[in-house]
Each structure stands twice: as C-alpha cells, then as structure tokens.
Amino acid sequence: MKFGKEFKKQKVPEWIDAYMDYSGLKQILREIMLHKLSRQPPTPLRAIKQKLKLHRTFSGLHAKSRDFVSQGDIEDQVIDVEALPRDGSGHFYRTNFLRQSEEGGEIEEMFFEKLDQELNKVNKFYKDKVEAVMSEAAELNKQMDALIALRIKVDTKNASPDNATAVPLRTSTRTLASDCTDLTIGVDTSNNYQEGELTGGPEVSEVTTANCSSDCKEEENKCGDHSLEILEHVKINNTLETPRSTLKGVFKDSKDDELRFRKEELRKVEGQLRVVFIEFYQKLRLLKNYSFMNLAAFSKIMKKYDKITSTRASRSYMKIVDNSYLGSSDDVTSLLEKVETTFINHFSNSNRKDGMKSLRPKEKKERHGVTFLSGFFSGCSIALLIAVILRIEARDLMDKKEGASYLVNIFPLYRQPKTSLLFAYAILHMLMYAADIYFWRCYRVNYPFILGFKQGTVLSYREVFLLSTGLAVLALSSFLANLHLDMGSRTEHYRKLTELVPLFSITVQAIRSIELYICYYGLGESSQRQSKCHTHGIYNAFYFIVAIVPFWLRFLQCLRRLCEEKDAVHGWNGLKYLLIIIAVLIRTAFELKKGTTWFVLALASSAVAVAMSTYWDIVMDWGLLRRKSKNTYLRDNLVISNKSVYFAAMVLNIVLRVAWMQLVIEFNLHSLQKMAITTIISCLEVFRRGIWNFFRLENEHLNNVGKYRAFKSVPLPFSYNDEETEKDD
Fold first, then answer.
1. Confidence at residue 720, expressed as pLDDT on a 0 to 100 scale
2. Which domain of life is it from (predicted)?
C-alpha cells in the first residue's frame, strides 16, 4: 500500500485537520516537477556539473548557535531553517529558501512555506495534547492513591480478629510492594504531595520488587497510616447514569458521598478506574501513532522533494523536525510503559497477558464465512418469500372471506402495524443499519466512538446483514409453516399446534408485541382474536402503556441530561418527546373509542408533534438550514460533496413524517387493504429513520472533529475535598 493511502487510513477521524497536509504538499511537488520537465534540457557540460554537484558532501552544514539552523556552502545550501521562540513555550519554525532567483523558485518557496505551516501546526497540536495527558496522569495518580488507601482500609476492616495486626490481604507482598514504590504513598510520608508513577520521570526512585518486599516490612505501618490520611480528604463521585439515579441525585443527602469502606464499594471503584485506565491508554496509543505517522509523512515528502529537485534539503530539514517537540519528546512512550505496569499490577493480578489483552484488544477480522452465510440466507429468504406468495395465490386467500380474516388476524403476529420493531420491521431496520454502517465507513464517520462501542466488539455491515437475513429466514419459515398447517384440509387436527408456531419466535420480538401475544393466546379461535382484544380493559390499559414506553424513556433521559449538563437544549428535546407522548395517547384513544372529537384531537396533536419533530430532525439533529453557512442553507462542513443529497434528505424527511401522520386518518377500505396501506407507511417510516441515523451521526462526528474530541469522557470515582473547595472559591 502506498504511504499516502496508509497515512489517510491511520488518521484519527476527529483529528483529521490536525495532521500534516500530505496530499496538499504532494500537489505542490507535482507543480514543481511539471515545471522542471517543461524546461530546456541542460547542455552536456552543465549536466556533468549537476551530476558532480549531487555527489558533494554537506560537511559544511551545521546548526546556528542560537537554534537549529542549517548553514553551509552557499552554492550547495538550499534552505536555511530558523527556530524562533514562540509566545509561551516551544519554537516557531521558518524556512528561508535560498534559490528564489532561479527559474521556478517561487513554487519551491511556496512548498517550504506550506511545509513550515504544517510543521508548526502539528508540533503545537501534539504539544498541547501531551500536556493535557500529563495533567490527566497526575489526576489518575491521585485516584490510585485513594484506591490503594481504600483497599487497605477495606481489607483491614474485613480481616479476622486474630490477623488484625497482620498485613492486609490485598496489600500483602506484591501489591504492597508496588504501592510503596510505584505510587509513592509509602516512600515519602511528608505532607508534600509528589507525583507518582504516572507523571514521574527519571527522578522518581526505582526500587526492585525484591528490595521493596523487604523494605516495606519496615515501612508497613507508615504506608498504612499515610493511606488512611488520604481517605479523610476523599469522597465518592456518584455518577448519574439512569433516570432513577438522576432523581436521587437531585434530592441526595451529603452523606451519600462519604466512603463506607465496603467490599461492594471497592469493587465498583475498581471497575470504574479500570475503565478509566483503558480509555487513557487508548488515548496515549493514538498520540504515539499521531507522532509516528506525522514524522513519517515529513520524511516521505522531503525525500520526494530531493528526488524531484536533485538536492539534499531533506537532511537539514529533518534535523529540525527530529529536534522539534514532535520528534524529541518521549513523554507519551514513558507514560505508556508506566500505565501498562500500573494496570497489570493493580487490575490484572500481575498477569501481563490478561492485562495487555484488556489494554490492547485485538481487532475483529473479516471472515469469508460471514459473506457466504449472508448470501445463503439471502437466497433462502427470497425463496421462502416466493413460496409464501405462491401459497396464498394457490388457495385464493385474498378472495375468500375466511382466508382474508385469517391473514388479518395471523399477519400482525409477524408484523404488528403499530410499531416498526417487529419481524418485518426489525429486518428492515437491520438492513438500514447495515447500509448506514457501510456509508459511515465510506465517509470515515467514527460511529463506534459516537455510539460508545468497545474496541473489538463492533459489528461490520456484513455481520449485521447476516443477522437480518437469518431473522428473515426464521420469520418466513414460521409464517409458511403456520400457513400450511392452519389452512390445509389435511392438517385441521393440528390446529392447536399451529397456534404455537408464532410463539416459538417470540424471543426476537420487541416489547410492543407482548399485549398482542397475551390476547392471541389468552382468547379463543383465530377468527375472533382481533375483535375480542380491545374489549378487555386490562388489554387496553397495557396497550396504552406499551405504546408510550420508548418515548417515556427518552423523555426521562432528556431530563437526566438537563440535570447533569444544565443545558436548555435537553429541556426542549424533552418537550418534543412529551408532545409525542401526548399525540400517541390521543391517537390510541381515538383508535379504541372512535368519534369526531377524538379524531380532531388526534389529528391536531399529531400535527404539532410532527412539526416539532421535523424541525428538530433537520435543524438540531442534522445541523442544517444554517443561514450564515458558506454552504447555502446547509452547514459549513459536509462529508458528502454533492450538496443536493442534503436537500433531497430534508425533503424526503418532511414527506415521510407527514406520511406517518396519515395513520391517524381512518381509511374507508377493506380490512386487508387497510393493513397493507399501514404496512407500507410503516416501512417508509423505517426507511426515514435509517436516513436520519446517517445524518445524525454525521453531524455529531463533524462536531467532534471541530473540537478534536476523540475520546470518551469517563467519570472518575474519587473527588478530593480540596478540589471542591477550589471550585467553590
């Protein structure tokens, strides 16, 4: 694979603007090459001189005393690089091209101006990120101090009376040894806080495990006393992860943050810190890869320049790059080693294999069997669908009253009209999700990060397609079996058995179908099932509840985020879901009770909900219709170059939203025809949601790119009292 493609593949999607513009520099080199090719060929004598010139050594090149500046014989020197002091810290690099007077020199000067811009951009970005992770490492070191102190306290509290004076179970031998040295809580018992293993450099004392085992026996009591002092300044951070925890957080008691020194509390803290360390390690790996790929890009582009211009400018320029912060800093490498050691010792029982497996999970490899099975199940699904159609046509079920009644009553068990999360709709949803994954990957939208998937557990679009085709085979097989057994004259005595066929596949159904299954199997013959369901008050109450459960959960989620982030946007989003809940309740009541009043109320509430949802889809979720955008009525950044795609998506979203509202209207049609129309509209709604998913994640990805946000924000388990005091001040 060519370096340009590999470089593009290895980029962190959220940092794409922070990488060196390799393709842009290559474009300038093409212009230089074309200009040189268009020039007159040199005379033989001049060619000989140029050939000799290529073999000259650059022994006269050396750095200027004030900074790393290349300087040598003026005839051989191509560039003069200056490292100027930047405001704050670091350097600002500027290259003086010394052959401006030559033909085509202005193009080469433009190349080095662009090269300097990229070096300064990359160097500054890398330095800022490293400083941020060093600060985070210091905080993680304090979290480890608190964890070790909590371990000692919990183990001492749960120790037997006979062993009360012995070394605590969790801190004996290996753990205590690492605690006393790596995290500095036992080596230095002074009041001054020292940075521990994560932020310490060569100045941190390195003691071998064997020596620590003997030394810690003498320092054991001091280590324990110092650990317990830490716990006096520490509180537990209770993260609001659910609507219930949010409500409890609003009315919480201050005592809820205090440590209780229980094993359950310790396990929870260890689990949280384990996730924090894994996420922090991934961040360090990305930074190391960022440095490596950019250094390789500078080296490659300078070699190309030397090859095109027949010079040796890369030697002097790469010396500057290697001495920059990007090329000389080893902070990230040092932190990686220290995090590995800490994680293995404290979260993997000193098992390096298990620890590294958690820190560096293997990426899933594409398997040929997935592709084969996807094709096989696709063919089976098509064959079964054709068989179902032929079976219905052969028995003229569409024309017979008994057959039509059977289809109206049995078909909802495989395709419930009021939701899009059952067999046919679930399959369509999964197919749309597979298509979304395919296009997200094509346009490099980092959907695993946005959706919070763990590394190594992300399904490819082929795997999702395999699941959808497998489910299609299961659903069509069940339907065909029920159709054959229930409507066949030779299988009438198996009718009770045929009723159980849909029940076998209930495990793949969504909660919205539960009330239908209760009614179906709780009442009599199939010809009376649909008409009897709504005559039961319990069924109707459950019908209302199940209809609003998804929207109610989203409403509570909006309230939780409003309490956490104090952002009014989540309040407006909650209002949207509240309007949808009201509309669903009125529409369900209209379906059960009928009447003009209920119809008007259902139509009005649905119209308001659709208008609010459509506006939120396009403006808030997709970020479109920005009047001041450089892309008229769109947004500044787009991943799809064809702008008409966005306008088509907006129009289609509006049309399909309005089409979904048509379910409120009572069609004066045969029951089977009405069911077909409802099915088509519901399938269009699934299609609309698939389109919404793509543009929603695209907008979120671009927001992450604009903020260079490539990592999850993982809450820390502990907070120090002095930090809260500083915040209050």
1. 81
2. Eukaryota
